[in-house]
Amino acid sequence: MSARSGAGASLARRILAGDPRALARSISWVEAERPEGREVLKAVYPRTGRALVLGITGPPGAGKSSLLSRLVAGWRGRGEKVGIIAVDPSSAFSGGAILGDRIRMQEHAIDPGVFIRSMATRGHFGGVTRTSRDVVDLMDAAGYGVVLIETVGVGQDEVEIVEIADMVLVVLPPGLGDDIQAIKAGVLEIADVFVINKADRDGADRLESELRAMLALAAGDPAEAPPILKTVALTGEGVPALMEEVERRRSEAVDSEARRRRELRRSRERFLNLLRDELLNRARRTCLDNGEMEDLVEDLAHRRRDPYTAAEAVLEKIRFPAPRGAAMLGSRRR
Ligand SMILES: Nc1nc2c(ncn2[C@@H]2O[C@H](COP(=O)(O)OP(=O)(O)OP(=O)(O)O)[C@@H](O)[C@H]2O)c(=O)[nH]1
Ligand SMILES: [Mg+2]
């Protein structure tokens, strides 16, 4: 036990000193849900909350990684360390997308001021949301002033990015056609800035006016509507203006009342989510393993027992754990 927390504490010290190897190891611990990872998270928590967490989302192939790479170059030019989390839902099927990202990111791969981490969602973005938040904390504690999270926005994922990010860029390529209708539902609300990338291609102006029309419908106050910027990530055109917009918002957000409110809301949500996960895990560990869950579900389905009494029994068991091996929900025997 003491050896374990000792390992966590010494790793935490190295992270706070900005050691990338300590960062890499602690991220692996956190991803594997090892207790040492938790020790590190506890130790570094007071030193978090400083980084700008920037979400970059949009349809597959919109140019998110290319754009991100340009932004990284911009921040590196200012001497800022940048952490990157690439959340990749497709890697469960093939490693192709991650490999592609790696290649586009290659110019930064040997820069010690850039830390890149890929994460596969394997269809459970909720779990990734929690892990990503922990990884953001670790990068933040290690002195990465900007943490970029790239997600492919094809459904729920892009909405969940908001839970973590301070600012969200929605990247759209021209030529979406009717697809723009499909993306509008979730994406319109989460974008702080819209980026029309591949502006060298036909249809960029059309997309811009469609987007403006849509935003005008959605937003009450046009002054509040997110700006739309155009870029060509291939050449870097429009990227300085995008940088400027992001930096302007970043400095405005510091010390704002809106930021304080968001911090409170997020802290509350994070804590409640954690508590819920922990309680459920504990319930699973103490009484719902070894097929008991299946038996219980069977009973519920056949109306042999009711879910209220069953839940009460589980809570009781968590409060007063019986000796190991004792049947927990053994009312069938009665
Ligand atoms: N013409 C043009 N091509 C671009 C531009 N930006 C990126 N591309 C190309 O578009 C393709 C996809 O770029 P990525 O940066 O991988 O796009 P992505 O959104 O990260 O893709 P996924 O992560 O796979 O969803 C690559 O072949 C890029 O070279 C641009 O501004 N103009
Ligand atoms: Mg990408």
Instruction: List unreliable stretches of 5+ residues.
Output: 91-100
Estimated radius of gyration: 23 Å
Count of helical stretches: 14
Largest sheet: 7 strands, parallel
Q: Which ligands occur here?
A: guanosine-5'-triphosphate, magnesium ion
Distance N to C terminus: 41 Å
Backbone shape? globular
Topology pattern, helix = H, strand = E = HHHEHEHHEHEHEHEHEHHHH
Proportion of residues in extended strands: 5-15%
Number of E strands: 7
What is the oligomeric state here? single chain
**Average pLDDT value?**
83
Q: Provide the helix percentage.
A: 40-55%
Give the class from helix and strand content and strand pairing.
alpha/beta
Provide the spatial order of strands within the biggest beta sheet: 3-2-4-1-5-6-7
What does this structure look like?
Helix 1 crosses helix 3. About 3% of the residues have low confidence. 33% of the residues are buried. Helices cover 54% and strands 12% of the residues. It has 334 residues and is α/β, with parallel strands linked by helices. It has 14 helices and seven strands. Helix 9 links the parallel strand 5 and strand 6. It has a seven-stranded parallel sheet, sandwiched between helices. The longest helix has 31 residues. It binds guanosine-5'-triphosphate and magnesium ion. The site of magnesium ion (MG) has 4 residues, from helix 4.
